[in-house]
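Sequence design from tokenized structure. All designs in this work follow the same two-part layout: the structure record, then the generated sequence. An example of the structure record is given first.
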């Protein structure tokens, strides 16, 4: 319903299984980027192709325990790799620093193979770790609790603080 009133990108992170049968529905609803988990589809290549056929950007999310190997053969078809730095499920969890290795590895692969995909991170992102994840290679940061609850919920201030760290 919001899509017709906005020119911003709608980035949809689908944490549902099986995901494949819902891709078209979210595309029709106005999603510009559709991010899926490899574990939520029987055929990752088919799901990536479906998103591409619908002229949407492809995102693939990696849970903290998911290895990069699962997407290596598909990186040239992926527009965004979302690295989860908490186990999906609820907000307010503590950042898992061990995922920094995964971000660095993705950045290295991206540079070596001259690939063009965003590296997004989601989970426990705050004023103390935002600079570290950017330095590791992430170029998109997702922050919920810090944005909405810090500084008495001053969203604008919290976004500016994250950008300045």
């Amino acid at each position: 319903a919001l899509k017709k009133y906005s020119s911003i990108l709608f980035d949809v992170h689908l944490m549902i299984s099986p995901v494949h049968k819902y891709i078209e529905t979210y595309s029709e609803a106005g999603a510009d980027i559709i991010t899926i988990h490899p574990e939520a589809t029987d055929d990752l290549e088919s799901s990536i192709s479906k998103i591409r056929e619908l002229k949407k950007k492809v995102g693939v999310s990696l849970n903290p325990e998911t290895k990069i190997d699962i997407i290596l053969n598909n990186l040239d078809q992926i527009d965004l790799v979302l690295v989860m730095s908490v186990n999906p499920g609820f907000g307010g969890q503590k950042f898992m620093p061990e995922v920094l290795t995964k971000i660095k590895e993705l950045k290295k692969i991206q540079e070596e193979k001259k690939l063009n995909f965003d590296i997004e991170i989601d989970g426990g992102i705050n004023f103390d770790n935002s600079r570290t994840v950017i330095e590791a290679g992430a170029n998109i940061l997702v922050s919920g609790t810090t944005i909405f609850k810090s500084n008495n919920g001053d969203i604008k201030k919290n976004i500016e603080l994250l950008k300045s760290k």
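DSSP finds six helices and six strands in the chain. We note this feature because it recurs in several other targets discussed in the main text.
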